[in-house]
Inverse folding.
């Protein structure tokens, strides 16, 4: 069932069930009262990543808060996507974009990876999670992706689930066409690895190419910025071996 894009959607941490009372956060209350100017009786949609999507009614407004009453289930909770998206963190504005687009493109887990050329050694995990929720609110997504703590590339690979195929975007691949390598993938558990602006080091490329669970793909004849490469790689992967 597709999302209703005509109604305002809000993520809430509370359990959702018919008749439950929910107090909107200060930021949400400000938005509902002063930006949307909703009156009592107006309807919104609520989701929490666990209980599906529910309609809710503005039941009470004070100077500081909006109280919502949960009404009816609109969409059941779908399973979380199994696609793991591994990425080298970028500088803040472009990192926000990258995270939002990864959510829109169907990533189920976001795994920051520290490589030799990574620009940001320790990204703000709470900001990443806030961007995930914002993208889910805007795009009708109910299964909110998980954001994991950053991990160094060698440590991530040492503990890798060997049954999960890792698709590695290599700017120095011998061909421009990613389709043959993707079409050869037989596993159903998938992950994607996109590097930093400076690319992977030679040592990292050798390490990745030597692993039996890694597939190497190019992303065409042009050099892409890291945030552009993220969207391009997710699109071609989803269209070839993903859920498209």
């Amino acid at each position: 069932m597709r999302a209703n894009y005509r109604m305002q959607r809000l993520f809430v941490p509370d359990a959702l069930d018919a008749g439950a009372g929910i107090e909107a956060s200060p930021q949400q209350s400000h938005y509902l009262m002063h930006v949307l100017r909703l009156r009592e009786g107006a309807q919104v949609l609520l989701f929490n990543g666990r209980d599906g999507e529910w309609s809710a009614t503005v039941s009470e407004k004070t100077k500081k808060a909006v109280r919502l009453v949960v009404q009816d289930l609109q969409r059941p909770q779908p399973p979380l996507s199994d696609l793991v998206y591994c990425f080298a963190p970028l500088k803040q504005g472009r990192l926000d974009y990258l995270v939002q687009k990864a959510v829109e493109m169907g990533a189920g887990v976001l795994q920051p990876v520290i490589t030799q050329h990574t620009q940001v050694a320790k990204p703000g995990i709470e900001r990443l999670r806030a961007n995930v929720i914002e993208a889910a609110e805007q795009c009708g997504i109910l299964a909110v992706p998980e954001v994991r703590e950053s991990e160094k590339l060698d440590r991530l690979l040492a503990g890798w689930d060997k049954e999960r195929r890792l698709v590695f975007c290599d700017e120095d691949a011998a061909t421009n066409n990613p389709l043959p390598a993707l079409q050869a993938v037989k596993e159903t558990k998938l992950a994607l690895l996109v590097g930093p602006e400076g690319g992977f080091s030679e040592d990292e490329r050798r390490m990745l190419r030597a692993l039996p669970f890694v597939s190497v793909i190019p992303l065409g004849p042009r050099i892409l910025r890291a945030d552009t490469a993220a969207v391009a790689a997710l699109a071609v992967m989803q269209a070839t071996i993903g859920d498209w």
